[in-house]
Design brief:
The chain is α+β, with helices and mostly antiparallel strands and 326 residues long. The chain has 6 helices and 14 strands. Helix 5 (292-299) crosses helix 6.
């Protein structure tokens, strides 16, 4: 599959050089934690600290994590990176990689129930809330830190024998001292699909999940099942959730989505019969065909329809379609 030359999904930025060859170095984390030049991104629950409410970067933010010209004339919020001695009581540490200047960047992870480790000038913000507004390099760093951090906190025991594992690979693997198995962060592939009309290029089909509030709509999505291709998963998920058969699948792009550990793979597809659209009544409470004007109004914050936030790949799919890029 090839990706059309359009803007990347919000969380698909290049991020850091992950410098994976360094992870096998004995004592890497201890050495870097003792180095005052090391920068640390603290993750508290699913939130990270920001430099200021206005988005102006402080001296403790690594400037090289911000893409040149990424602001485009407007202020982005910026992640606050601190020195290792400013972090206490972190549950887990990991080596994220190096920025463009070669500075080492670590993550320090604390569970949501722990108190915030310090007051951030711009407060603490979750990836869902701020990810779509960060500069691409910082968005990539945040999603890497959060994805790895959730695994470090949530999977401390060997799934084969139940023994508490030992963190290795500078935070990127776990070793079971009892049965010898090695465990790595898990990523589950999931498809997400924007469905266009068979007869009218200005209509888009979206669904409202039964767990959401009224008038909140998004693309159709679901996990790829065992032994299933992504293309088959697209056809099955849309059929199950919206009652529509689709064809003309086009791959748009992908991004990590650590809720809990997904890799979202975005597609456009075309309905074969618009009139067949109906909600499954279980996971999806309502399906609705939207005009291009209605989507444009909702993206601009008008009307009574709520669309996905900018951090999600669903937002990118919908915005692409509205702009005529589907």
């Amino acid at each position: 599959m090839t990706t059309p030359a359009r803007p990347r999904p919000a969380l698909a930025g290049p991020g850091l050089d992950r410098a994976a060859d360094e992870r096998s170095e004995d004592g890497l984390l201890d050495r870097l934690r003792a180095d005052a030049a090391t920068r640390v991104l603290v993750v508290h629950g699913d939130a990270a600290p920001l430099t200021s409410a206005s988005g102006s970067a402080s001296a403790s933010t690594s400037a090289s994590t911000r893409a040149p010209g990424a602001n485009g004339g407007k202020q982005h919020p910026a992640l606050l990176l601190v020195s290792p001695d400013q972090v206490r009581d972190a549950s887990e540490w990991a080596f994220l990689g190096r920025d463009a200047e070669g500075t080492a960047v670590l993550s320090a992870v604390l569970p949501s129930e722990a108190p915030a480790p310090f007051d951030a000038p711009g407060g603490w913000a979750g990836l869902r809330v701020v990810g779509g507004d960060l500069a691409p390099g910082e968005a990539g760093m945040f999603v890497e830190a959060l994805s790895l951090g959730r695994w470090l906190l949530d999977a401390p025991y060997c799934p084969a024998c139940g023994t508490r594992t030992e963190v290795r690979g500078a935070g990127w693997s776990r070793h079971c001292p009892a049965c010898g198995r090695e465990h790595f962060p898990r990523t589950d592939p999931a498809v997400i699909v924007a469905v266009t009309s068979a007869v009218d290029p200005d209509r888009l089909l979206l669904g409202s999940n039964a767990a959401w509030g009224q008038n909140r709509f998004s693309c159709f999505a679901g996990f790829a099942e065992a032994g299933e291709s992504l293309e088959s998963a697209v056809v099955r998920e849309v059929r199950e959730e919206a009652g529509v058969e689709v064809s003309d699948l086009t791959y748009r792009g992908s991004q990590a989505w650590p809720y809990p550990r997904s890799l979202m793979l975005g597609f456009f597809a075309t309905a074969l019969d618009d009139s067949a659209a109906r909600a499954d009544g279980d996971e999806i409470a309502e399906v609705r065909w939207f005009t291009r004007d209605e989507i444009g109004e909702a993206l601009a914050g008008g009307g009574d329809v709520l669309l996905p936030g900018k951090a999600s790949i669903a937002h990118r799919l919908i915005a692409d379609w509205q702009a005529g890029g589907a």
